[in-house]
Structure formats: C-alpha cells, structure tokens
Design a protein that fits this description.
Elements: H1 2-6, E1 10-17, E2 22-24, E3 31-43, E4 46-58, E5 72-81, E6 90-101, H2 105-120, H3 126-137, H4 145-154, H5 164-180, H6 186-203, H7 207-224, H8 229-246, H9 254-276, H10 282-306, E7 308-310, H11 313-337, H12 342-367, E8 373-375, H13 380-401, H14 404-418, E9 434-436, E10 445-450, E11 453-457, H15 463-472, E12 477-483, H16 488-491, E13 502-503, E14 505-509, H17 515-527, E15 531-535, E16 540-543, E17 546-552, H18 572-577, E18 581-585, E19 591-594, H19 600-608, E20 617-619, H20 630-636, E21 640-643, H21 656-664, E22 668-671, H22 672-675, E23 678-683, E24 686-691
Parallel strand pairs: 4-6, 11-12, 12-13, 12-14, 14-15, 19-20, 20-21, 21-22
Antiparallel strand pairs: 1-3, 1-5, 2-3, 3-4, 5-6, 7-8, 9-10, 9-23, 10-11, 16-17, 17-18, 18-19, 23-24
Length: 693
C-alpha cells in the first residue's frame, strides 16, 4: 500500500466513511475532506485487503457530500503518500464515488440523533445554532472562524470539542435521575455503562472521543469514590497507558496532552485549593479553582500551540462554567427527544440555546478586554520559563486563597492588567509607518494613518494572527481594508479584522475568482454592514494623510477568467497576476509598493505601462517565491524589501535566488519567517526598523 501511495497510483478502492465530511479551503478551491477506512485497494495489478485509516478528498459536488458515518463506498482516485508523522496510510484524491452499502442500523440511529440535535436548534440565532452541537457532540461544522478566534483568546476553545466534562455532566445527570426513580446497586453500574456507550456512539468512536471518555471516567471515579489525589492520579495513569496501548498515535497528539494535564491539574490541585477558600461559598470556590487548576496545568502546551497566555481565561471559564452543564444536558435531551417528537426536541433545543448564547456573550465580552491575552514567543526558553512560572504559581496559590486580603490584591491586579493591553517591551515602536504582520504563510500589512487608525492590506490565512497583530498595534479603526485577491492565504483571516474594531471600507479587485472565495468575502462584508468597493488601475484614494494609488490591474483585465480543473487551481497564476498592486504614500512621506502575489507575467505587463513604481519599501511579490521579474524589482529602486512567509513553510519561500537577487539590487531584505512582525518608520528623516524576533 505504501508503494502504491509513493507512486501516486490511480486506484479503485472500497472504503468505509469514519467521520463527517467537511469543507477545506486550504487550496485555491474548496474541497470535501472525509476521514475513511480503506478496506480494499486495486491498482497497478495489485489487490490489497486492509483496514487502515486514510484521508479522502473530493469535489464539492461529489456524492460523498451526503456520506454518513459507517456507509461503504466504491471510489476511483489517485493515491498520495503520507508523511512518516501522519497517522494515516495514504491520502486519496477521489474522482468518482458511489455508495455500495448503507450504515448498520446502530449507526443510522446515531446519525438520526445527531441530525435531530441540529434540527432542534435550527431556528435559533446563528451563534447558539452552531455552539449547541459543538458543546454536546463536538460537531463544529457550523462554528464560525470569528467565534473560534474569540474562544481561543478567552480560553474557552475546549468547549467546542468533546471533553471528559461532557461525559461527567451526562453521567452525573443520568445517575441522579436513575436514583430518583429508584434504581440502586449494580443496576446503577449498568445504567452508567449504557450511558457511556451511548455517549461514545453519539460523539463517534474517534480517538479524541475515546480519550475524552477515559478522562471523564477517571474524574468521575475519583470524585465518586472520594479518592485522594494519589489514587486519582493512579487512575489517570492507568487510563493514559491503556489509551496509548490502544492508539500509540495519541503520544503525538496535543489534545491528548491537554486532556491529561487538565484532568491531572483538576484532580491534584482543584480540591485542595477549594478547601482553602473556606471563607467563600463552595460553589464559588469550585467555580474559581477548577478552571484555574486546568489552565495552570495546560498553559505551557496551550502557549506552545498558540503563542498566547489567556489572561482572561480564568474569568471567562468561571463565568461560563455554570452555563455549560444546562446547555450540555438540554442538548443531549434534545438529541434523544428527536426520536420521539420533533416538537419536544425543539423545546429542549430552545432550552439549550439560552445558556449557549450566554457562553457566547461571555466570550465576546471578555475577549474585548484590552488585556485579554498576552503574546509570548513559543521558543524553548520562553516555554521553560512559563512552565516554571506555572509551577511556582501553583505552589503559591493555596497561601493566597486562604487570605481574603491577598485574594483582593490579586483581583485588583487582574483588573488593572485586563484594563490595558499587554505589549512586548519596545513594541510597537514609537514611530512606525508600516508593519508587516507575522501571520504565517500569507500576507497582512498594516499602514498607519494616525493613532489607532490604519489601512490593512490582506488578512493572512487565519483570524487569530492578524487579530493579534492589530491588537498589539492598538488599531481600533480600519479606515480601509484591501484584499488584493481571493486566495485563502490573503483572505482566510478576514474574521480576525472585525472584533473590537470599526471598518469603514473594504476594497477588492474586479476579479471575482475563485467565485466561492469572493462570495464568502461579500457575505462577510454585507453581514457587518460595510461598503464594498472594487478598484482598478488609475484610481487614487486619499484617507487622512495617506495616498493610495492603484497601479494594477487595468480596467477589464481578467474578464471571462474562470478557474479550470477539478480543484479549481488551474488558473491560479492568472489570479495571482491580477492581484491589486498599489503605490502608497504614508502621512510621513514613506513610499511603499504593495504587490499581492503578482507573478512575472503580470510584473512585466505592469512595468510596460510606464507607471512610476519607485518606492522606498517593497513588499516582495508572492511571499518571495522564485518566480520574479528582475527588471520589475529593479524599477522599484527600493531600499528595503520585505518578504511575508511562514516559518518552515513547505513552499521554500522566500526562495534563496530571490533573496540573492534583491541583495544584488542593493536592497536590505527582511523576512517575517525569521524576524516575526517587521515595523518600519520614518521620523524626521531618520529611518527605524524594529522586529519582534
């Protein structure tokens, strides 16, 4: 099988769908991505029988869009090799698919329950409609990027995944109800086992669900038996070893580390700390100590993944905690009642939607606090210091909790911290005109107009980094947001622009390709009530003291252009060549050329128009790829050239030959993949360049 995948063989396969289809927008066109188990593969004269996990992708109009977990399919497609670190045997790009067997009756019941849950909240507002299925069964298909970014900032992101808390809440509710109707003795164990089995089936028997189930049972066993910290940790260790024996790939899973650490932190610390808060009601003590213990235990891993410390996480979790139980239990009730009557399910869904809405409001309110999150570099040294700080804090907390005055001082300090956005020393610099944000493999450029006001050009691939960059710079008003073209690495972070900021105008080029991406942008702009303007070469826009001159593309360029090929990527170079290119003059007189992803063909055509391209600062086209027109770069006469690309990206950006060419042309080359965000400013004829790395 590995040899066939390495050869990129065209095969016919039989597979079983093992997860819900989802839409991926990582490429130039969205595609379905479906977790599957391969059962039979035929290709290159071989017939292989196996039971191995794989990942399949297919066009959006594929029959697989309606695939149900447990259904069996026959497909044609081309194999792709998996990397050594992948937990799948291969990737399969499907060209044709047809169902050959329906799911088993048990899987059909599970699917009816999940669909019933979704339908029970279908009439509720967008936020609760998306969050209730995520809270109950980990179905995040409807959760927006904006809400995900809010939950990351506030430390509530665990609510959108199946966790041990889900099972603990469900079991606790069911066992209380069982005792109320008279169930006793071993029958309670039978009820608990049956409830656990239903939970696993409803949330799908995926590794993450099995992990959450084990952690939930550990916590429940420790609490139910009144086990001390030592015995509770013993239960946890047994669960860890058992899970790793079942699925060794969990050893590489950040989710496994987070679940284990959170459970351990709660078992070891939370009870002791709540006991120290004897001067407060027990409910209040546990509401504060449980999330605090979980956050301290998991913070080094969270920071390694996100580059942030959620300062507001304790407050957000303490406020949201009492709402999670009602939303989860009512959601499970809605799923069950959907088999009885849709009206009863809708009533339970209505009940679940209100606490879910409360959680969303809490997340939005706490994320809006200026000091909600502290950005830190995810380096070994900083993470080691953070780990030591968490351990010292865990040792120090019991001494604080037992004293009211000490708690009051800590609360006062937290209020002061949250009231002011934390910043890295010296960042942003006092005099900056343009910042090239570090958003990974993508572009996001911020050009300053005045205090708190800027124009933003592109948003990178993800909402969190661009939001973080703008927050660090203190930008509360985006006078103009320009999207140079509609590729995911330039528009994917759009949802990170809106929270806590006023956006006056959104500008794009005339080309609406890929169409799906253009439609997403237009829908987001309309949803936020912002005017959309399409610019062409020759247009001059003045915003404050800033002058924007669009120099490319010309009117009518790209008329009739349509993406071709089954993946929509056939005309990606043509789309790049029609990126919006502009010459910008800042209020302090700094001149910039912002070039999107324009490639050699477009560069040569732009140069041939004879427009003035001379600037001081050049944003190197297409992340510094190796495809550049030397004459175009030379015509800019730039002193500084900046490449925006992701650290360790697989494209090799910026290309060494491009960096060498820019150096030969006398430009100083700065790279976000090495330096992090790059700030350039001019103050009374004195240039300054500052980076964060």
């Amino acid at each position: 099988m590995a040899e066939l995948a390495d050869q990129g063989a065209v095969v016919r396969a039989e597979l079983v769908v093992s997860g819900d289809p989802r839409i991926s927008t990582a490429g130039f066109s969205p595609r379905l991505v479906v977790p599957v188990q391969l059962r039979v593969v035929e290709g290159r004269g071989e017939r292989i029988s196996l039971v191995r996990a794989a990942v399949a992708s297919a066009p959006l109009d594929s029959a697989l869009a309606d695939a149900v977990v447990g259904s069996r399919w026959q497909v044609d497609g081309r194999l792709g090799a998996a990397e050594p670190q992948d937990s799948v045997v291969a990737f399969l790009r499907i060209t044709r698919a047809r169902p050959i067997a329906a799911p088993s009756p048990s899987w059909q019941v599970v699917e009816r329950l999940r669909e019933g849950l979704r339908q029970s909240v279908a009439t509720r507002p967008e936020g609760p409609r998306a969050l209730v299925p995520a809270l109950v069964v980990g179905d995040v298909s409807a959760v927006s990027d904006e809400l995900k970014a809010t939950f990351v900032t506030t430390g509530l992101t665990h609510l959108t995944a199946v966790s041990g808390a889900n099972l603990t809440l469900m079991l606790g509710f069911v066992l209380v109800m069982a005792r109320w109707i008279g169930v006793r003795g071993r029958w309670l164990t039978v009820v608990a086992v049956a409830t656990t089995a239903v939970f696993v089936a409803l949330c799908r028997t995926e590794p993450s669900v099995l992990r959450a189930t084990a952690m939930g049972l550990v916590a429940l066993a420790a609490v139910g038996r009144g086990a001390g910290a030592g015995k509770a940790v013993r239960h946890l260790c047994v669960a860890m070893v058992a899970l790793l024996a079942i699925d060794p790939w969990l050893a590489r899973s950040a989710g496994f580390a987070l679940s284990t650490l959170a459970t351990g932190g709660i078992l070891v610390w939370a009870g002791q700390w709540a006991d120290r808060l004897r001067w407060a009601p027990r409910v209040v003590a546990e509401a504060a100590c449980v999330p605090l213990a979980a956050q301290l235990a998991t913070q080094p891993v969270v920071s390694a993944l996100s580059g942030q410390v959620s300062v507001v996480g304790l407050l957000a979790n303490a406020l949201a905690g009492p709402l999670v139980g009602p939303a989860t239990v009512a959601g499970f009730a809605a799923a069950g009642l959907s088999l009885v009557h849709p009206g009863l399910a809708a009533l339970a869904g209505w009940a679940a939607s209100w606490p879910a809405q409360g959680i969303i409001w809490i997340g939005q309110a706490t994320a809006a606090l200026p000091g909600a999150a502290l950005d830190i570099p995810a380096t070994p040294t900083s993470l080691a210091v953070l780990t030591a700080a968490c351990l010292v804090t865990a040792w120090w907390i019991p001494h604080v909790l037992s004293r009211r005055w000490a708690c009051a001082v800590v609360v006062l300090v937290m209020v002061l911290v949250l009231a002011r956005a934390p910043t890295a020393p010296g960042w942003p610099p006092q005099h900056w005109d343009v910042v090239f944000c570090d958003v990974g493999q993508g572009d996001a450029t911020v050009v300053r107009i005045g205090p708190g006001t800027a124009i933003v050009v592109d948003t990178g691939p993800d909402p969190v980094p661009v939001d973080r960059c703008l927050t660090r710079l203190g930008i509360s008003r985006v006078a103009m947001l320009v999207l140079t073209h509609h590729h995911a690495d330039h528009i994917g972070g759009l949802d990170g622009i809106w929270p806590g900021r006023r956006v006056d105008l959104v500008v794009t080029g005339a080309l609406r390709s890929p169409a799906w991406a253009a439609e997403q942008v237009e829908a987001a702009v309309e949803r936020h009530g912002v005017r959309l303007h399409r610019t062409v070469a020759g247009e001059r826009i003045v915003v404050g003291g800033l002058v924007w001159q669009t120099v490319w593309p010309p009117l009518g360029a790209g008329d009739g252009l349509e993406t071709t090929g089954d993946d929509g990527g056939g005309e990606s170079s043509a789309e790049n060549d029609l990126s919006v290119v502009a010459r910008v003059v800042t209020p302090t007189g700094v001149t910039l050329l912002l070039t999107g992803d324009i490639e050699p063909t477009g560069q040569a055509a732009l140069l041939a128009t004879g427009q003035d391209l001379r600037v001081q600062v050049l944003k190197v086209p297409h992340h510094g790829s190796g495809r550049q027109d030397r004459d175009f770069l030379a015509a800019t006469g730039a002193v500084v050239a900046v490449t925006s690309s992701g650290q360790g990206n697989t494209y090799g950006h910026p290309a060494p030959r491009t960096v060498e060419l820019l150096s030969q042309l006398g430009m100083t080359v700065l790279r976000t993949d090495r330096s992090g965000p790059v700030a350039i400013g001019l103050d009374e004829d004195r240039w300054s360049v500052r980076t964060l790395r």
